[in-house]
Amino acid sequence: MNQEALQVAKASMKDNRKLLTALGNEKPVHLSLAPKEEKILSSILDLLPKSTEGKLVLAGLVAFVAWELIRSKERK
After folding, report:
1. pTM of this prediction?
2. In the 8-state DSSP scheme, what is residue 35?
3. Which sign does the torsion angle of CA 4, 7, 13, 14 carry?
4. What is the largest CA-CA distance in the chain?
5. Tens of pLDDT along 19-64?
6. Residue 33: what are its φ and ψ, rounded to 5°?
């Protein structure tokens, strides 16, 4: 039984070594273009204000629009 386990372990180590050698020989993959989702997100983030004051104004504008939408729903 020990002899069989030893042979199985040696075969497994040999297979693992072959796999690691094959993986080590592969060249790294470099993306030439960013995925669409990343480009879209980057474009949206570029539109956002960078300063604290700009962020506060944007937050106020979003709150105002949300308030108007809620009020318009209540009127109906």
Report:
1. 0.42
2. -
3. negative
4. 84
5. 778 777 767 767 666 778 888 888 888 888 888 998 899 899 999 9
6. -130, 145
Cβ(74)–Cβ(66) below 8 Å: no
Residue 50 in tokens? 């960078």
Q: Retrieve residue 61's tokens.
A: 């504008």
Answer whether 49's CB lies under 8 Å from 55's CB.
yes
How far is Cα 7 from Cα 72, in angstroms, rounded to an integer? 77
C-alpha–C-alpha distance, residues 68 and 75, integer Å: 11
Tokens of 38: 């990343």
- Would you say 4 and 12 are in contact if contact means Cβ atoms under 8 Å apart? no
